[in-house]
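User: quick one, fold this
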Amino acid sequence: MKIQENISLKSYNTFQIDKKARFFTEVQSIQEVQKALRMAENRKIPVFILGGGSNILLTKDIYAMVIKMNITGITVQKENQNNIWVKVGAGEIWHDFVQYAINQNWAGIENLSLIPGTVGASPMQNIGAYGVEIKEVFDHLEAVNRETLEVEIFNHDQCNFGYRESIFKNTVRDKYVITHVTYRLSKHPSPNITYGAIKTTLQEMGISEVGITIDDISKAIISIRQSKLPDPKLIGNAGSFFKNPVVSLEHFEKLKALHPTIPGYPQSKEVKVPAAWLIEQAGWKGRTFGSIGVHKNQPLVLVNYGDGDGEAIKALSEKIQTDVEKKFNILLHPEVNFI
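Assistant:
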């Protein structure tokens, strides 16, 4: 395990923001995580855990021990007639794991194809897309307690999952390092193609709903995402910058009276409203400001076209929040973490 000093993090975050880490190390085992935490404690400096860097916006240099999670491995823990429990290292690339599961015909995460980031982040923010969330296949995870250095296990209920939320984003934030996640996947695929443009895309690809496979679904979703979202290797971004807001039914009905075309997805006594629609209606889609801007195809995505600054992107996001709140009385909440 090597400790580096004053290392640029530009290649370690998908926004491609050029900020530095005071100390930087990569870990490949629980023992190396514990060793890095001890070293940070001995030097009296804070710790920052880095996965795929796809859900962060760097606004300044990080005076910390940045620990890059590279713990890999995919192993079957147990199985029965219907399900298989798979333990995955937190450093595995999420999309690679999805493709691995599809190749084994293990179902449940095919709708989450092409989501950027690593496995360790999946329960942290309860990643979701196209009608599926991680909480539906999550079994348990292992995490190192930063204070005691002991390995602890969190089951489904203990994670307290919510919309893009878990206990690791609030009450125990910065207190644990997730090292492994175990998922319960299905041996008997039950395709979920009701959300968004999945059905239409399958038809365009010439794939019949009869005998549809999880690989078909994955390919359709990859096609949809690639048509709407910029490749972070080409244009710096962190995917969806804001969460889709959820408002009361009463609030939505008032908005509907003022804006008849506003889309909404009922959830019990509340309605989820697409943040992308709100941002576009507020006039932000496709706007550029020097090296940063709002993507021309997907207003939910803020982008860095070159040498953009994290503080400038943060300021842009705040202006968007202000305009959307003024027009719709809805406050957008960032999905991206400001560092």
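User: anything notable?
Assistant: The longest helix spans residues 310-328.
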